[in-house]
Amino acid sequence: MKIGILTGGGDCPGLNAVIRAVVRKSLQNGHDVIGIREGWRGILENNFMTLDLDAISGILPRGGTILGTSRTNVYKVENGEEKVKQNMKDAGIDCLVAIGGEDTLGVASKLYKGGVKVVGVPKTIDNDLNATDYTFGFDTAVNIATEAIDRLHTTAEAHNRVMVVEVMGRHAGWIAVHAGIAGGADVILIPEKPFDLDEVCDVITKRHARGKNFSIVVVSEGAKLKTENNVDKDGSFVLSSMEVDAFGHVKLGGIGNVIAEEIEKRTGFETRATVLGYIQRGGSPTAFDRVLGTRLGVFAADLVDKGEFGYMAALKGKDIVAVKLEEAVGELKTVDLELYKVAETFFG
Amino acid sequence: MKIGILTGGGDCPGLNAVIRAVVRKSLQNGHDVIGIREGWRGILENNFMTLDLDAISGILPRGGTILGTSRTNVYKVENGEEKVKQNMKDAGIDCLVAIGGEDTLGVASKLYKGGVKVVGVPKTIDNDLNATDYTFGFDTAVNIATEAIDRLHTTAEAHNRVMVVEVMGRHAGWIAVHAGIAGGADVILIPEKPFDLDEVCDVITKRHARGKNFSIVVVSEGAKLKTENNVDKDGSFVLSSMEVDAFGHVKLGGIGNVIAEEIEKRTGFETRATVLGYIQRGGSPTAFDRVLGTRLGVFAADLVDKGEFGYMAALKGKDIVAVKLEEAVGELKTVDLELYKVAETFFG
Amino acid sequence: MKIGILTGGGDCPGLNAVIRAVVRKSLQNGHDVIGIREGWRGILENNFMTLDLDAISGILPRGGTILGTSRTNVYKVENGEEKVKQNMKDAGIDCLVAIGGEDTLGVASKLYKGGVKVVGVPKTIDNDLNATDYTFGFDTAVNIATEAIDRLHTTAEAHNRVMVVEVMGRHAGWIAVHAGIAGGADVILIPEKPFDLDEVCDVITKRHARGKNFSIVVVSEGAKLKTENNVDKDGSFVLSSMEVDAFGHVKLGGIGNVIAEEIEKRTGFETRATVLGYIQRGGSPTAFDRVLGTRLGVFAADLVDKGEFGYMAALKGKDIVAVKLEEAVGELKTVDLELYKVAETFFG
Amino acid sequence: MKIGILTGGGDCPGLNAVIRAVVRKSLQNGHDVIGIREGWRGILENNFMTLDLDAISGILPRGGTILGTSRTNVYKVENGEEKVKQNMKDAGIDCLVAIGGEDTLGVASKLYKGGVKVVGVPKTIDNDLNATDYTFGFDTAVNIATEAIDRLHTTAEAHNRVMVVEVMGRHAGWIAVHAGIAGGADVILIPEKPFDLDEVCDVITKRHARGKNFSIVVVSEGAKLKTENNVDKDGSFVLSSMEVDAFGHVKLGGIGNVIAEEIEKRTGFETRATVLGYIQRGGSPTAFDRVLGTRLGVFAADLVDKGEFGYMAALKGKDIVAVKLEEAVGELKTVDLELYKVAETFFG
Hints:
Four copies of one chain form a homotetramer. Chain A has helices at 15-28, 40-44, 80-91, 102-113, 138-159, 174-183, 197-209, 236-241, 255-267, 287-305, 325-328, 337-344, and strands at residues 2-7, 32-36, 48-50, 95-100, 118-122, 162-167, 187-189, 215-220, 271-275, 311-316, 319-324. Chain A is α/β, with parallel strands linked by helices and 348 residues long. The first copy, chain A, folds into two domains: 2-136 and 285-328, Rossmann fold, CATH 3.40.50.450; 138-282, Phosphofructokinase domain (Rossmann fold, 3-Layer(aba) Sandwich). The first copy, chain A, has a five-stranded mixed β-sheet, sandwiched between helices. A four-stranded parallel β-sheet of chain A has the order 7-8-6-9, with helices on both faces.
């Protein structure tokens, strides 16, 4: 068989580990592999690259993806599905391995229903994908955020400051909770648990009262206010400095900066914000993510070899298993509230 | 209740995370916690320390254990069990949280059968403890080893060398397999799969033949020869340079050095060995190990609070669960051979 | 003698190395050392701490400062100088070691002229202090920024993006130039070389034209537009999205965000900004900064011992030397333009 | 001109930074650059590679050398100098940039006297090359060793152990002294200061007596005993377990292991050794080494462009300057004893 492989959506440490594993295992299984550049766009535009042993040499420890990526959605392009089928046929591509998140796998799932032979590999920094215990890239992001919190701790302590750290997580707070626990956060704000700023300030004030004159607040970019319409109880907070969109997300400046300003105003403690941003998703993957990516890639290659399409390789406990593509998409995996309770043990 | 807490066996990144979590959660549960210094020795010698919020402040990111550790075995001391009971009584200690590996938990299990209220927390760098999916410290060790392999890769490539890396793992090859997969090893030798040096050299020679004139060999300290009595087929290998003990372990110099010498002799390729040693078990834990240690500690504190003794906190899939102490000890958890097959995909 | 020691201004990796060295050496020289908390504020408010061998144990690898810090200026407090003298007398403090930047050493210099026995140790993340080749903390900041740029590179490449990285440097571009060279930046913008956005966009566009469809722009927080009144040539830039203060610094959002927006608008290439912020000044110092801090501290202790006050310990080539405090302050050390030319070799 | 460039001797982080800088600057200066593979061997065997902008893309952060390296000495090959000249002529190579240490630059110096146009760039992990303040690669090695010592500290403390760390430095103790100061070593043993084991044990014993029951001993691989013929005072040490070669270097097992065994025997304290080995010279260079390598490469390219041959680019204070090749070789730069005195401040 001739297998096409692509990476879609935001980049994520471990993508190259998956690509390498799919290629290596598929060659051993007696197939050919061709790289499709820049996600679904590449198959729509016939943009391919050779993937032999030389092409994958030395890529395991590197961040990013040698295939490039994009957010192109086949179903938002006119006759997208037909074009994919035609271009696969023209290029002699028998089947696809699609590595990506909610969107990329959603397309994969639809294509499969439309008759395209496709196997998926789940990918998201945010770890919010259903049907897999953890996604690669997440461990790297959590370690980068934790190291940043470690660094901010010393500054907070030296200056008697409150430090607010904004981490990734638009819809789920996995990075915030893991990095917050690992970094010893005093407050963690996540989309799953809308917050009240007065309660946050209360925790900080009590902490200072017992002699700890610095605090670390970790906040997901998608964290939201508890009160209705995202307006704080006295109505002043949102109106004065915060602009939110229809989903309650801060539009300008980021929630980290907005919260820091408000905490300083309300508590009187010097407060500073740091928005970690893109450094969380770049660079060399951790060992965990390299191993997970490699295992998923080998498993996906074997699914293809056995002709088991319409599935995604997923981590369950210690094992890699196959789950139906349609189960993987549609619903977000939000933070386990038992885990959040563990984090709360250390608040204040 | 007054809870005594101790750490036994080799040190391991994440011990302080567990201690902090047990103390913090137990105080919230309304109990007192007292630190027992240097493992079981501390309770035999009445060597205690105060563990309040101040004592655990700032310890989360630190390696080692603020309690100190030792390999003292209660049951190798005359009237050990009686002394433990008497000293607990004298110090007003109602129950124990014992953090350790096979040996420490073995003592805990026996003490429980003898009537001592005890809860265990599993700990081993080597990840070879039964009844828990992963142990804290392991992820840190794997990352340190992986980073070392990354570094050795560039030297191997620049000099056309074979680099042999000896990692921890006396009875199980978990570190070798994970770091080997993550570091892109060309050969991985583990205790679970006795090896034949000619086969190893064959892989390396074939690799060179296809233009890759460097190789990385990762070897567990407990790796063993395949042939009988640890003598290589032609009888020359062991006799010339290797001295093994009753268990087949190399006594002097380490297996890494011995293998490197033999590979150079047999293949003619320049070969160098690096023994990673103690740097694998020291220093700041990864985020994974901090989160795991914290979750185990909180869970153990709750077991104590609920009066559920004789159990150990364990990781199963994404959850922390209670398993009986006796199930945790007695049998090693060796490397999953499915995982080793994934690693083999990349050999040569 | 009884020596008082304090740290002032922003925190900086290596401060604890200096404190440890001053204490250790001074004790060996037969003196006592007392810690003054939170910079000059501590001597004004009689806020002291004991500094014996126990107090400095284990602090070498830690970021921040065990003494705390503040920006309190003795000469902005009524009768500040008199209070310092009186409080020193009351506490039996014979002389001071002041560790800090422009402001802290400026106060030290005035106090010395006023009759106080004081020795200085230069400190600034920004490396913009005169009379010393390099300051500790700078190497750590540059390494953190470089690692971030390395990470952003993989994202830029995977997404065909321009990544703008804002680093510290309000008045001098040392961090930007060093991290930019080390990270392989395609453009570096510093306060010493006001920039023209069209030229910046031109470099990026030409880079894309030769097949490199990603770019890294490193910008000091204090970088300024070339054209008059900080308005870009066509007048549109500043007015539309940029608010600058009297010194030409962007007031809101940071220059990184503003530039990223403009580059995207002008070139059509997807552009993202990352503001590194406080993570650059926290956490464990590099070996270079620990060695430099230690050497400066030992030297300062010896200056005190020899009664040579009014001096600062400084790095000149490979040596630590004494320079007069008054020479150290008053004029900034801006980026060597030869070094910037080296950086320019790699632009585009 | 057509410029040939080569890297010789042991690999060293920063080599790729130099290569990239020489190529980039020389292209801008209007010349061509050709890569000579595996040091001097490549020019003897006509083993070349193309070096254009593509070839150097992305190599800045990578360890090793894309050119490969060897220890081949032109003057140990029959008619070596003639062959070099002939092969240069045949390949149209006008001049050489040789990056290497004592041996490589020694050959460069002789070739220059023989009429070959050559410019040198100094390289050694060990920092023991004359006529330059620091060499690239050294800072990376020191940071790796320091991080290892940090890790060993926590193990030493948890187990009440003496940890012996063997670092690189056959003839000079630069790495040991810098990493020892940065890591807070209690004893540092270097080739420049032959040691007495009884004195070493005395320091450790006194440390324990004052309540510090762990110690870190950093030892250069080339450290030597103080007493005559490398036999310890009572004659027992060397005879029992140490075999030294004519230069006093330990032949088997490494000095770290030998010393650890003796310290345990003499003091009764549990002692363990770690030999860092090759991880010190591999992997991604620090920012310092990338900047230094880049500056040296740009400078060397300009020397070539100006026709100033027979020189080496060197770091003096903050500047890069030209020094005659003959001054660079012949004499080792040993550890500054003032610096060692700084280190001694923290012994015990």
